[in-house]
């Protein structure tokens, strides 16, 4: 059966929470390894310590591991499409988008202070995963509400009802259109040694600020431009927000039909831990971005006292 949480009269589907929680757990491991090879050396240099000696090499090895690259592609695709599924299960997408945008602005402000006041180059997050999800949710809400408005104008006949139901797939169609544009006009894909690699073809506009603005909308390799590494966490609207829109189709096909209860019998105590992470994914994701670096700083500071 489905669960009800926090007194809300709203069904939650365990498989969504489970997949989301699994994705976030893997992201936390990913970011931990990133901190070990990118932030830990800076922290040790600041305090004159040698905390977790050898961890930097482990982090670098992990970051370039072929399996990690493959799993990351699957994880981020799954996570963003789950965001699209979730968009079909609530009417408050504009509100969710606003909250995410506020959090994203806070992340930019805090990371900017870390870079400018503490000297950690590349720490500033100008347009990261939270920024992109906020944009994707806003985009979904706008397209879906437009589809609903058109559907309401069609009347109440049988054909009108069919048309209204079909229009709810409009966000997914827009997402597919964006992906087609991205993979035909902005990039190409190669497959080598079991790894799919996206190669960006977008070229510099010849101006640093214009390039930064462009990179919000379409994925580019900062090293190909004249501003180097400009964001510590980089997820532009294309192609990633398009995955959120496409995920809406899965939400409509599965969770707005009888198929939504297909996996209910598999629910149980075995998945409670991962599902807990999935239910609180936004908070846990944002919190771990702060907690891991802070723990490294505190650990190095304590180590410097001895």
TrEMBL record:
InterPro entries noted in UniProt: HGSNAT_cat (IPR012429)
Top-rank lineage group of the source organism: Bacteria
Keyword match Transcription regulation: no
Pfam families the record matches: HGSNAT_cat (PF07786)
The Heparan-alpha-glucosaminide N-acetyltransferase catalytic domain, residue ranges: 12-143, 229-289
Annotated keywords: Membrane, Transmembrane, Transmembrane helix
Transmembrane segments: 21-40, 69-90, 97-114, 126-154, 166-184, 234-255, 282-302
Name the record gives this protein: DUF1624 domain-containing protein
